[in-house]
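[Q] Does anyone have a clean structure-token version of this?
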Amino acid sequence: MLVSKNDPRPRVKAELIVPSETIAFLESGEESMQAARDCLKWVREQQKAELTVRNAPVVLELNKVRLLAPVLKPSKIICVAHNFHDFLEELGMKPHAEPRIFAKFANAVASYEDPIPRPAMTQALGYEAELAFVIGKAC
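[A] Here you go.
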């Protein structure tokens, strides 16, 4: 859909159709994606104007927002252990023939720059990079 500069529909669609939570966004499928595209197109066309919706700015500077985790309340978190072979080698371990699967609770999800709590019983706190996949369609 082509959007004219004064067309309010993308803004209205963004408010009504584009859910702010990732799971709801994915569940809405192509309708949410198209509404998001329309909204972004409208914002790009309006960039020189001071954009507000209900007296609130549409675009904010990064230092004025808090980035949240992409999925705040996942229904499940399934993890694979010992899948980084270089690290296993550093520890003197051999890769397992079968993947080691474990789960985490949803409260393990942290947003960007959130503090990571260290339970009092913890004697050593390690860190590592994680890669997550959000599956939004039945598979």
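[Q] Thanks! Anything notable?
[A] The first strand starts at residue 52 and ends at 53.
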